[in-house]
Amino acid sequence: MKKEILIITNYFPPEKGAASNRMFVMANSYLNNGYKVFVICPLPNYPQGSIFKDYRNKFFLKEKINGIDIKRLWVFASNSRSKFIRLFSMLSFGICLFVFLLFNKTPKKVIIQCSPLLVGFFAVLASKIKGKTIILNVSDLWPLAGIQMGLFKKGIYFNLLEKIERYNYKSAHLILGQSEEILEHIKLSYPKKNFFLYRNLPDFKPPKVLSKPHSEEIKIVYAGLLGVAQGVFNICKEIKLPSNVTLDIYGDGPEKDCVKNISDKNPQIHFHGLIERDKLHEVLIHYDFALVPLINRIYGSVPSKIFEYTSLGLPIIYFSEGEGADLISKYKLGYTIKDNNYKALNKLILELASGEKNCLIKNRIQEISMGTFNLEVQFKKYLEFSNSL
Fold first, then answer.
1. Are residues 161 and 233 in the same domain?
2. How far apart are CA 20 and CA 30, in angstroms?
3. Average pLDDT score over residue span 81-88
4. d(Cα 167, Cα 159) in Å, to the nearest integer?
């Protein structure tokens, strides 16, 4: 009889983005190691904030993707900037999830994606009541991240979220952290818990790196969410591109229209919108550098783009600081610009354009990335560790 695992997540395909892809990769990794995999998630709605066309007018839906059994529950979908509407949206799925878990038979072992924090809380509470083995997959340190992003201030709401955060950690049998910073933060309060560093590594066979033809042109690319935290709009306003440098942007999000307006006026900035991930990989290998920005340094956050882009052989221009910047420097995977220093960013681009700094060798970038950040190796170590508990 196959071993079973339940994954509870707020994001899952056909939704796009790092969070959805992360949980899909984890589900597939379990599947490839002989497990029967179940997923509980909301009806797909991210990032648009509305239920996808093929899933509308449904309260509950069962389906199967790549052999994964999926149960989708109702959610009040919204991408509103109002924290009260966002709170109601999380509560709507959280309560549906709680009721479903209480009154339905599910596997003994459950992986709970956290954040969102409130969704994680309802999943942890129901799982604890049912006597499940709880593995908490922590990708962000809420509510600390909310403070650092300026979404709310310390007060009653923050204190409540902090209590929920502590309850989730205390109830877990194993805590997975996507960064060393996350694990260090939790260990301060719960040093005796079981921990495992589980980075958000990509699951695809990387294409052969293209040798760059002799050319003075430098092509920089950004691909991902166009949100406030990424600050791509501000970068487009502040960046000074030499005549032989272009910036291409792929993605969607709240700042899409602003970015598009700038690209319409600047012939060196090209906006392409959202394209499928497989197609994106085919496009990305033609670029010289990938821009990975985070306007507000978020403690514990390491963008999964680092691992994805470097496995394609793309050197990184990392416009932030923290553990992500440390990884880039440690393994020589690109360049780092800290403190939102646009002057330093423009200086680096000018040096690349003039040849003062050499373009990094893409083959070497890919070899280091695939050797150091290998999903299959990581998952086998994780599986051995989790099964020993």
1. no
2. 16
3. 79
4. 12
